[in-house]
């Protein structure tokens, strides 16, 4: 049992113990049981690594540590840190990050530089989530161009090959995390469905013949992430299956934004806050085996948050 599982089991036991306490008179004159403070921490030191699908660009309020990463206060790492009642929380996810940015400084959107994401991981780290790979080889940008430009602009064979190559990069990332944090549980988080696997909709304005190959490449990418996670000694958290029926064409049920830039909602073709909650829920279930107490906003204990200041 890892430190994360031990801590999560302790939290579950405390919650059950508290819920079993009576807070009123039992009718025989006995005094009520004392009110027990349920605000506990699991002792988990949590580090989140990843790209924009983890950072959450333009969902609600953005963090300023650093501004150039377009990191939301309501991304899935923040929800997870809240629901797990972690002791410490370091979120170094950054929009546009690739696996190369785990090991070297990254130039952010605003031109400033932030340090290697792996610098946030230490021997004291208990839990690490890794949500990246889609920006490697320019895969994500190519898929968006495919959606916009039609089948002629979409080199599907090349994209499938590149998506397959991501497995080796993810395996390396997991191994490097495990070297830095030998006792940590390492979870690679997949990507949700962005486009429908069948059909299309007016919001996209392209035919199903165009979207089919794009969705196929996205599936290859997630399969590659799973292989890399397993080969590196980590675990994989699937978002593709749970997000089926929640793509951009799902209207009110969509977990991801459509092609419009919507300040406060999400960047184009990126998760909205409900998608972030859903992702956090899947990771929480993987860690604890329990259902989370879902909240509208992520509110991890401010004392537990370790801010990620840019380097240089």
UniProtKB/TrEMBL annotation:
Q: Which Pfam families match?
A: Lipase_GDSL_2
Entry's EC annotation: 3.1.-.-
User: What are the protein's GO molecular function terms?
Assistant: hydrolase activity
Bias kind Basic and acidic residues: ranges = 289-300
Q: What residue stretch is flagged as signal peptide?
A: 1-24
Region Disordered, as annotated, extends over 289-312
The SGNH hydrolase-type esterase domain covers 48-278
| InterPro entries (UniProt xref) | SEST-like, SGNH_hydro, SGNH_hydro_sf
The answer to whether the entry has keyword Hydrolase is yes
Q: Which UniProt keywords apply?
A: Hydrolase, Signal
The name this protein goes by in its record:
SGNH/GDSL hydrolase family protein
Source organism of this protein record? Nocardioides renjunii
């Amino acid at each position: 049992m890892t430190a994360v599982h031990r801590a999560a089991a302790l939290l579950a036991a405390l919650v059950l113990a508290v819920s079993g306490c009576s807070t009123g008179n039992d009718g025989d004159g006995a005094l009520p049981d004392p009110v027990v403070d349920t605000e506990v921490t699991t002792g988990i030191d949590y580090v989140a690594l990843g790209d924009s699908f983890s950072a959450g660009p333009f969902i609600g309020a953005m963090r300023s540590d650093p501004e150039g990463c377009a990191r939301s206060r309501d991304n899935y790492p923040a929800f997870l840190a809240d629901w797990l009642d972690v002791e410490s929380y370091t979120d170094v996810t950054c929009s546009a990050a690739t696996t190369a940015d785990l090991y070297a400084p990254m130039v952010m959107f605003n031109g400033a530089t932030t340090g290697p994401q792996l610098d946030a991981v230490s021997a004291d780290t208990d839990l690490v989530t890794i949500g990246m790979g889609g920006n490697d080889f320019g895969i994500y940008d190519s898929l968006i161009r495919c959606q916009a430009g039609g089948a002629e602009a979409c080199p599907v064979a090349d994209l499938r090959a590149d998506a397959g190559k991501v497995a080796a990069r993810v395996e390396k990332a997991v191994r490097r995390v495990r070297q830095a944090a030998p006792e940590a549980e390492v979870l690679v988080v997949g990507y949700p469905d962005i486009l429908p696997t069948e059909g299309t909709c007016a919001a996209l304005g392209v035919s199903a013949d165009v979207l089919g190959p794009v969705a196929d490449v996205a599936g290859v990418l997630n399969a590659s992430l799973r292989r890399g996670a397993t080969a590196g000694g980590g675990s994989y958290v699937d978002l593709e299956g749970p997000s089926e029926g929640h793509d951009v064409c799902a209207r009110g049920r969509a977990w991801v934004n459509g092609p419009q830039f919507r300040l406060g909602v999400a960047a184009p073709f990126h998760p909205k806050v409900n998608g972030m909650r859903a992702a956090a829920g899947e990771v929480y279930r993987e860690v604890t085996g329990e259902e989370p107490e879902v909240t509208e906003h992520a509110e991890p204990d401010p004392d537990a948050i370790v801010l990620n200041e840019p380097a240089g």
